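Researcher: Let's do a round of design. I'm pasting the structure tokens now; please hold your answer until I've finished.
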């Protein structure tokens, strides 16, 4: 009983340490003071200024476009990788697909920057998308592989016995069963892409500023209430996506 209380206390303290700073940021986004030194009063004016900031809106639009395209490409390539990992069960293939998941972001960013320079690729939205896809494929592949591990292979055998071609059995049987895992992986890829900073910092070019990069440029001067406001909106978007993602968790997929 004593150990359980200690574990509960430690858990609560850890979560307080993680979430109190986020709550402070959200609270001060409504503070009627530009200094953020003390609470003055409640206001929504910083959100009004935020939506009137053309550079911030442009950065947000860039982030949404890049994250959406990255999620679609990662979903397609990650699905193929996940199916291959399940069927062939080769360690080298799993290491190749999942390697970027375990690598430090700064290593991925520097490596991709050097590769783009080597092949004379102009840095911009395209280079960011390619970079985000490179580390997002592994997350989609994991979700798809987990889904395939719970599938009944007899369904595919029955489809073949009924005369279905390999493509028909994949399109009509395998793909619908994999869809929850694919959606979960794509939502994870979208979330990782829209708030990525390190890899984007190395692969972004002129005119391709994303929301995290824009926030960083603002924070270098001072943490203004506008930064708190956009951070609050970004946190809410991430929480919505994570909540939706939980509906496609491996436990839910088996129901």
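Researcher: That's everything. Go ahead.
Model: Designed sequence:
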């Amino acid at each position: 009983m004593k150990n359980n209380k200690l574990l509960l206390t430690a858990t609560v303290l850890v979560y307080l340490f993680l979430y109190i700073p986020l709550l402070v940021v959200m609270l001060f986004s409504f503070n009627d003071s530009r200094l953020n030194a003390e609470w003055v009063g409640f206001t929504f004016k910083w959100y009004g200024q935020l939506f009137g900031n053309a550079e911030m809106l442009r950065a947000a639009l860039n982030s949404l476009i890049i994250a959406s395209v990255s999620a679609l490409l990662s979903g397609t390539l990650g699905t193929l990788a996940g199916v291959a990992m399940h069927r062939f069960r080769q360690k080298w293939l799993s290491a190749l697909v999942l390697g970027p998941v375990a690598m430090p972001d700064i290593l991925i960013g520097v490596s991709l920057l050097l590769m783009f320079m080597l092949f004379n690729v102009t840095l911009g939205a395209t280079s960011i998308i390619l970079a985000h896809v490179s580390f997002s494929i592994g997350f989609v592949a994991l979700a798809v592989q987990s889904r395939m591990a719970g599938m009944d292979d007899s369904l595919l055998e029955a489809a073949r016995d009924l005369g279905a071609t390999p493509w028909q059995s994949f399109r009509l049987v395998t793909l619908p069963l994999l869809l929850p895992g694919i959606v979960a992986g794509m939502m994870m890829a979208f979330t990782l892409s829209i708030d990525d900073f390190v890899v984007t910092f190395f692969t972004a070019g002129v005119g391709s500023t994303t929301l995290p990069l824009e926030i960083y440029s603002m924070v270098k001067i001072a943490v203004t209430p506008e930064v708190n406001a956009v951070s609050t909106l970004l946190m809410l978007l991430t929480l919505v996506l994570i909540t939706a993602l939980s509906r496609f968790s491996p436990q839910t997929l088996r129901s």
